[in-house]
Amino acid sequence: MMTNSEALDKIRQIVGNKGWLDEPGDIQPHISEMRGLWNGHCDLVVSPETTQQVADIVGVCAASGLPVVAHGGNTGLVGAGVPNGGVLLTTHRMNEIRDIDPVDNTMSVDAGVILADIQAAANDIDRLFPLSLGAEGSCRIGGNLSTNAGGVQVLRYGNARDLVLGLEVVLPDGRIWNDMTRLRKDNTGYDLKHLFIGGEGTLGIITGAVLKLFPKPKRREMAFVGASSAEAILALFTRANSGLGNMVSAFEYFNETSLKIVLDNIKDATNPLAGRYPAYVLIEITSLSDDDTAREALEAILGLALEDEIIVDAVVAQSEAQCVALWGLREGVPEAQRQEGTGSIKHDVSVPVSRISEFLREANRRVHQQMPAARICAFGHMGDGNIHYNVNQPFEMDKDVFLDQWDIFKKIVHDLVNDMDGSVSAEHGIGLLKREDMATYKNPVALDLMRAVKQTLDPQNIMNPGKVLPDG
Q1: HSE of 159, CA atoms in CB hemisphere, 13 A
Q2: Contact 429/150 with Cβ under 8 angstroms?
Q3: Which contacts qualify for 394-398: CB closer than 8 Å, 24 or more apart?
Q4: Model confidence over 108-150: pLDDT tens digits?
Q5: 43-54: buried (b, 16+ CB within 10 Å) or exposed (e) per residue?
Q6: Residue 283: helix, strand or coil by DSSP?
């Protein structure tokens, strides 16, 4: 086995002078998690240009036992990309769109292509790539797939794994698995791509993908609604889902606190409704028809809901600029929390859609039983059961004292989610943040199967070691 020093020298030779960093000041931006929760370390940051270079690098790591952690845009929220020694491999120089086919409705891309660039390329051929999230201007598709990213259009189009036909992956022994297929049907055994989508780089490094494209909607309509409770919002969702069908592309819930934080901290943010209410929802529908059918259907649903006193107030956007402004309220919640500067204990959880309002009511009760002055900022994708349930620091409380209670509030929320047959990680992944939660809440047989897959593909445990799977 070659020494670490020999391995690192060989990796430098593979990528050339412009493809590596080893000075502490140059490495630092790559090893810090974006929220500042973790700061890792590594011997070398390496930036390959081709899949073959990735394979050669991983082959060297396998021969020397060096760990390797893959990076996209470093926008993850669970510490999955934080290295603990070895090599950090960033895909930012692997940024080519390889092929676009409007007949097959596919796009073949390198793993390092920025998500917003994929959306723009699809738009240029009158198609839609629907994966959309707050970090889309800097996150890269390989990371999106490795974490099975969700975003705001899961309700209509599914998670990242639902948007992939084929993958190219470098395996832990340095071999390249090329399955860049555009086939919609292939029933020849196990669907291996799903081992790597959501695997957070623990089983291999995604280097390319064939993505599904969709017809580009001709019309977008949007409404912002105020209601007396989350129960009322859920009742509205049931009506919208029945009356509007697959035109509903987003159904985004806010509680009163989350909207207030935006209005208080985001410049030019304004409440589109005349009053303030305990619960709100942003509804987006899209249509392939360039007429008023979608708007009329949305207005009819809202009109009946107002008559039946399910909701209290609603406004329908009258222009694309108003649509953008309404989306700004939803997308502004995380940034508004950062600007406010108070501590926030965050949870990315999901429960069955039918139990969303029950979850919110009971979680609020349990949190306030523990800390009556806690401010609950709850928002997210009600239409697919995913709520970002954040317990925010009381203004009069010391931030460090509050954050010291992270584990207490995490247990309160996660125990409830587990009791409701939910998931303690809806769309952000496991990484370091929720690794030990896997031992508590994941089915033990499922954990055994996951460990068996890991041991089979990566017996040396060099691929992003210490992430996802708990010890045991």
Answers
A1: 18
A2: no
A3: 395/342, 397/373
A4: 999 999 999 999 999 999 999 999 998 899 999 999 999 999 9
A5: bbbbbbbebebb
A6: strand
Which residues lie across from 350 on neighbouring strands? 386, 423
Which tokens hold the place of 439?
A: 């031992």
What whole-number distance in Å separates Cα of residue 308 and Cα of residue 304? 6
Ranges in the chain, pLDDT < 70: 472
> Can you tell me the distance from the alpha carbon of 293 to that of 296, in angstroms, rounded to the nearest whole number?
5
Q: From residue 152, how far is each of 282, 371, 430 by CA, in Å?
A: 11, 31, 20
- Please provide the average confidence, as pLDDT, over all residues in the chain: 95
Three-state DSSP class for 386? strand
The confidence score (pLDDT) of residue 472 equals 67
The closest of 272, 235, 217 to 382, measured between CA atoms, is: 235
- Residue 89's SS3 state is strand
Longest dimension (CA), the chain: 75
- Listed in order, strand segments (DSSP E) in 341-398 are 344-345, 348-350, 375-381, 386-392
CB atoms within 10 A of CB 461: 15
Residue tagged 């349930």 (tokens): 389
Length of the chain measured in residues: 472
Q: Taken in order 456, 461, 465, 471, is the CA torsion positive or negative? A: positive
170 in Cβ contact with 185 (< 8 Å): no
* Sign of the four-CA dihedral 307, 313, 317, 318: positive
Residues 434, 417: Cα–Cα separation, whole Å? 14
Cα-Cα end-to-end distance for the chain: 28
Q: What is the pLDDT of residues 67-100, one digit of tens each?
A: 999 999 898 888 889 999 999 999 999 999 999 9
How, if at all, do strands 344-345 and 386-392 pair? antiparallel
Residue 194, SS3 per DSSP: helix
